[in-house]
Amino acid sequence: MPDLGPYLAFALVSLGMALTPGPNMVYLISRSIAQGRTAGLISLGGILAGHIVYMVCAALGLTALLIAIPYAYDALRLAGAIYLLTLAWQAVRPNGQSPFQVRDLPLASPRKLFAMGLLTNLLNPKIAVLYLSLLPQFVDPEKGSVLAQALIFCSTQLVVSVAMNAVFIISAATVAGVFTRRPLWGVIQRWLMGTVLAGLAIRLASEAHR
User: Fold this and answer.
1) How many angstroms separate the CA atoms of 194 and 162, rounded?
2) What is the pLDDT of residues 36-79, one digit of tens each?
3) Hey, is 139 helix, strand or coil?
4) Nearest to 127 by CA among 11, 27, 14, 209
5) CA distance 145 to 160
6) How confident is the model at residue 209 (pLDDT cuts 50, 70, 90)?
7) For 97-115, how does the pLDDT look when each residue is reduced to its tens digit (9 = 90+)?
8) Which of 28, 63, 81, 111 minimizes the number of CB atoms within 10 Å of its CB?
């Protein structure tokens, strides 16, 4: 079982990642503004289902990889550091995307909303790569079952992500309006997340060479 310190650190990182611009957040906010909160929450259900698929696959894949290849642990750490640096650059680059740039969407039935949420998540490979980038930093094979630890961490990320997205859905119009009227807040948000991601990447890379 993971120690409390690494667990809380992972929860904090998950919170930061939940606030990072991405297709899921853009879709949910756009859907909520176009069709209402209920439609947004149904879409979130589809995204949750997609998260569960990626979560189980990542946990099983990480477990098998660490057992099969002795140096896979450090290799995943280094690859994860590179990926997080890429996300950091995407957040702070000139004309970077804000998650609150909404788009018009046609009305859809509840079944279609769920399916679209699921596909939006499953067709976003960033989720799978994200799990494999973060997990090696917090999973410690000496603390017991790698699979159990991975599932605990992934479940935590899942709860944090769903909770934050639900908040954005409920307050979608208000949040989008604030960021539209005050673009400086969007810039601050992007630089804050870029800094967090870059710091995490540096830590990940430095631990990979120990």
Assistant:
1) 22
2) 889 989 999 998 998 888 788 777 776 666 556 656 666 666 76
3) coil
4) 14
5) 23
6) very low
7) 554 555 566 788 889 999 9
8) 111
- Structure-token pair, residue 8: 């809380």
In 3D space, the residue among 13, 48, 59 whose CA is nearest the CA of residue 120 turns out to be 48
How far, in Å, are 72, 82, 200, 204 from residue 78 at the CA level? 10, 6, 12, 7
- Distance separating alpha carbons of residues 154 and 161, to the nearest angstrom: 10
Range 52-56 contact pairs with CB under 8 angstroms and sequence separation of 24 or more: 52/158, 53/122, 54/121, 54/122, 54/127, 54/128, 54/131, 55/131, 55/151, 55/154, 55/155, 55/157, 55/158, 56/151
Q: How many CA atoms lie within 13 A of 12 on its CB side?
A: 10
Handedness of CA 115, 121, 124, 125 (dihedral sign): negative
Entry pTM: 0.68
